[in-house]
Specification:
The complex is a heterodimer. Chain A is an alpha/beta fold. Chain A contains 25 helices and 19 strands. In chain A, strands 4-7-8-9-10-17-16 form a seven-stranded mixed beta sheet. In chain A, strands 3-13-14-15 form a four-stranded mixed beta sheet. In chain A, helix 9 crosses helix 10. Chain B has a domain of about 30 residues. The chains are: A alpha/beta, B alpha+beta.
């Protein structure tokens, strides 16, 4: 006689045959296979079997459920048995998800980020702070829910088992990745942040401040990076306004002094307006011939006291002072912008916004002034000379504009190389690469490729071929394929590898479409800034309660990958840095993936693109799973990370030129985004000629986006920035040690601004 | 602590900051990198400029 049952949590409760019959009936009703009397019959059989077979006093739930399954099949209720098994499996998954969620939250709450890899998944979130932890707990909860309720079973399985990785999975049901914010469009006429309305800015200081606010506001609507594609053109307008105002005020000051008068500004303003009207020009940095003379004439007509004064000399002084003042104000604005983006909060204070700015091609004197000063601010660093982490600076390289010594912005390209050699930024985007050049229209900066975050790029547009532009668009979502796993499972069989690859390309594209359905059903009011302020292309044509389905189609759905090098080693024995044959095979694999994306785009009339995945958190995830299954295979799974996208492995000795030559062709294939870097030692990087040669080689090899890595160290105690080996070259201390006492007095004299030396007498 | 000892200990326990590019962006110090990326950074070799 069965009297009691042991529940999963160990509690013993009374055995109740009715409960078993009720559960069976529920399963039968779901499949339409039987009625209450059938259910009672099976329940009785279950009880008899238990009494016969079970020796313990209180059998466990699992034992009872096993018996129910067996008896359902014995009685011929096969469909019901299957439904019951599925129901059990689902309940188990849910229970496990709950337990693992609680363990995750426990780790987030209790363990220091230093000891928890989980909390360092994204290096720009401080997992030790209250808001950072809350963000991580929210993310863990959202991930558990999304996997249970939103993913198809086959997608969840592929994700769980490490065949694919769904990026930003915590935001799966909530938003899209990133946008290129056209700040000029946003500023014209003013805008609202959702918390207040801001008038159209009137000076370079406000342009810069509002640009930072635009990035911050949009960061609240999306989980990925925020970028400004036209930083030079945008800031140029602000510089122009500041110059105009400065010109008027400087002129007024000088006229007042010479005429020994006060409050002349209204009259001077009239004079200036009249000159501007007759000349058809405004007072601007570009000193148009005859303009200052016209102003002088108007001034002379209104201020007879000035007769006999040299007005030409006066105008030349106005010019010089206005330039100097505007330049100074622009520098302060740019400095403030950089400081803002390194200190302003997003995501409830857990992070600064993830920001990028693109510039390089505006040849107007205003745009050039803005660029010179943003580079100067980047070069200067933060308050104590720290290297700025944000924004990412991207210099757009273009022949005829800034690439050759005779080009109008060549000086700025050179300056970019010099600053990057010290501060790691700018990175370089190459508009002359054929796949970028095909979109380029002179005089239309929106046709210039820009990048955001680590590498994302949006340009082609099958949904709307008249709008193949970078502005106001971005990535919607991306998922990556574990190429190495597919290669290892194929065991050197190329055909099998491609079969598997096709299977997962199809699976990922379906998963991206599933996610698109969720994103597309959102409304304008879900994205008060991104859609409400018309940042996203065509969202200004929508009402607050419209869904965003159609306008979202300007964005991209991207399929990414990791570990091409290990994949080639697994399939062919060598990676593409070692053999030209492997390089050929590598280009075939990535070309195959790109062809799939192009076909899918045509079929769906949506932008499927191929991404060389950034893989920060992902670098170690796939390989840990693969090590468990395949062990440590030499050159494939024997490190802690898979090689990023199509890169030559970081540990493989190769020259900079060879690396760039081999990686270049993959840039053309990865139309969702790509980057190549080379590693230089500190001394070589500071040689601007050598630095520029590497950048030029990137340009010539068809690289779309590249940068040069070199060590940038800083001793926070004495403030030294440069390469630090074991000993700081300035103060002579080792890591963690104090400064030798005889040095302190000397350093205090040389660097009184360093906080470490303040308070020392 | 007297001023004298304070001066003698200036810098004690303070590490160097090492700024590196993690994927396309920079990270202020490497304390916050995950284990896999740290080990990748450790393995990076310099690329020579010879043709």
């Amino acid at each position: 006689m069965i009297l009691s049952v042991t529940k999963r949590d160990g509690r013993v409760v009374l055995y109740d045959a009715n409960k078993i019959a009720a559960a069976i009936l529920k399963a039968m009703e779901a499949t339409g296979e039987g009625d209450a009397s059938d259910a009672a019959r099976v329940a009785n059989a279950v009880q008899r079997t238990l009494e016969k077979n079970v020796t313990e006093d209180a059998p466990g739930i699992e034992t009872i459920q096993d018996t129910v399954e067996a008896q359902l099949m014995n009685h011929g209720f096969n469909a019901t048995a299957k439904a019951y098994i599925l129901y059990r499996a689902n309940r188990t998954r849910a229970r496990e998800a709950n337990t693992s969620l609680m363990h995750t939250i426990d780790e987030i709450t209790q363990v220091d980020a230093k000891a928890s890899d989980l909390k360092r998944d994204n290096a720009n979130i401080d997992g030790n702070t209250a808001m950072g932890s809350m963000l991580q707990i929210g993310a863990a909860g959202a991930k558990a829910y999304n996997e249970m309720y939103l993913l198809r079973a086959e997608h969840a399985k592929a994700f769980r088992e490490g065949y694919i990785y769904i990026h930003d999975f915590d935001f799966y049901s909530l938003t899209t990745t990133c946008t290129q914010i056209d700040i000029l469009k946003l500023f014209h006429g003013g805008f609202s942040t959702g918390h207040g309305y801001l008038r159209e800015p009137q000076s370079i200081q406000s342009y810069a401040a509002l640009a930072a606010i635009a990035i911050q506001s949009n960061q609240n609507d999306q989980h990925g990076g925020q970028s400004i594609p036209n930083f030079d053109y945008g800031m140029a307008e602000g510089v122009g306004k500041t110059y105009h105002r400065t010109y008027l005020h400087t002129l007024t000051d000088i006229v007042e002094d010479l005429a020994d008068k006060e409050d002349a500004i209204l009259t001077v303003e009239q004079a200036l307006s009249e000159a501007e009207r007759t000349m058809g020009e405004t007072a601007s940095l570009e000193n148009k011939p005859g303009f200052d003379e016209a102003v002088a004439d108007e001034i002379a007509a209104r201020f007879p006291e000035l007769a006999g004064h040299d007005l030409a000399a006066m105008m030349s002084r106005v010019r010089k002072r206005s330039f100097k003042l505007t330049d100074h104000e622009t520098f302060q604005a740019m400095e403030g912008f950089v400081h803002n983006l390194n200190t302003m909060h997003s995501r409830a204070g857990a992070q600064t916004p993830f920001s990028s700015i693109n510039y390089g091609t505006d040849t107007s004197p205003e745009g050039r002034m803005a660029m010179r000063n943003i580079l100067k601010a980047l070069d200067a660093g933060l308050g104590h000379g720290e290297t700025c982490i944000f924004p990412i600076h991207i210099f757009k390289v273009k022949e005829g504009v800034n690439y050759n010594p005779e080009d109008p912005n060549y000086d700025l390209f050179r300056l970019s190389c010099k600053v990057s050699a010290k501060r790691l930024f700018p990175n370089f985007v190459f508009l002359d690469a054929p796949y970028n050049l095909q979109y380029y229209k002179p005089g239309h900066p929106e046709s210039e490729v820009a990048t955001m975050g680590c590498r994302t790029r949006v340009m082609g547009n099958v949904y709307d071929p008249d709008r193949q532009i970078s502005y106001s668009r971005g990535n919607l979502s991306f998922s990556s394929i574990n190429l190495v796993r597919l290669a290892l499972e194929s065991d050197g069989n190329e055909e099998l590898f491609y079969d598997k690859l096709d299977h997962y390309l199809e699976l990922v594209s379906q998963q991206l479409l599933d996610r698109f359905e969720i994103q597309a059903s959102k409304h304008v009011y879900n994205f008060p800034f991104l859609m409400g302020q018309g940042i996203w292309l065509d969202s200004d044509k929508l009402a607050l309660t419209d869904t965003i389905r159609e306008v979202l189609k300007h964005g991209t759905l991207s399929i990414g990958f990791i570990g091409l090098a290990e994949t080639l080693t697994a399939l062919y024995g060598k990676h593409h840095g070692e053999s030209e044959e492997a390089q050929k095979k590598g280009l075939e694999i990535i070309g195959h993936m790109r062809d799939f994306c192009d076909r899918k785009s045509k079929e769906m009339k949506m932008n499927f693109t191929l991404l060389a995945t950034p893989a920060e958190g992902l670098s170690g995830k796939f390989i840990r799973q693969d090590q468990q299954r395949f062990g440590k295979l030499k050159g494939i799974t024997d490190r802690e990370y898979y090689t990023n996208s199509f890169h030559i492995p970081v540990w493989f000795p190769i020259s900079a030129y060879e690396k760039i030559r081999l990686e270049g062709p993959y840039h053309a294939l990865c139309n969702a985004g790509h980057i190549s870097y080379v590693e230089m030692d500190g001394d070589t990087a500071r040689n601007v000629e050598a630095f520029e040669q590497v950048v030029r080689w990137m340009h010539d090899c068809g690289v779309g986006y590249g940068s040069i890595n070199h060590p940038v160290d800083r001793d926070p105690v004495c403030g030294y920035v440069g390469v630090i080996g074991d000993v700081c070259p300035r103060c002579g201390r080792r890591e963690g040690q104090s400064i030798p006492p005889e040095m302190v007095a000397k350093l205090k004299k040389m660097y009184p601004e360093m906080p470490a030396f303040q308070g020392i007498r | 602590m007297s001023e004298k000892t304070l001066n003698e200990k200036l810098g004690q326990g303070v590490g160097f900051e090492r700024i590196r590019r993690i994927t396309g962006y920079l990270v202020g110090t490497m304390d916050k990198w995950n284990d896999a990326k740290r080990s990748e950074e450790r393995d990076r070799v310099k690329h020579s400029l010879s043709m």
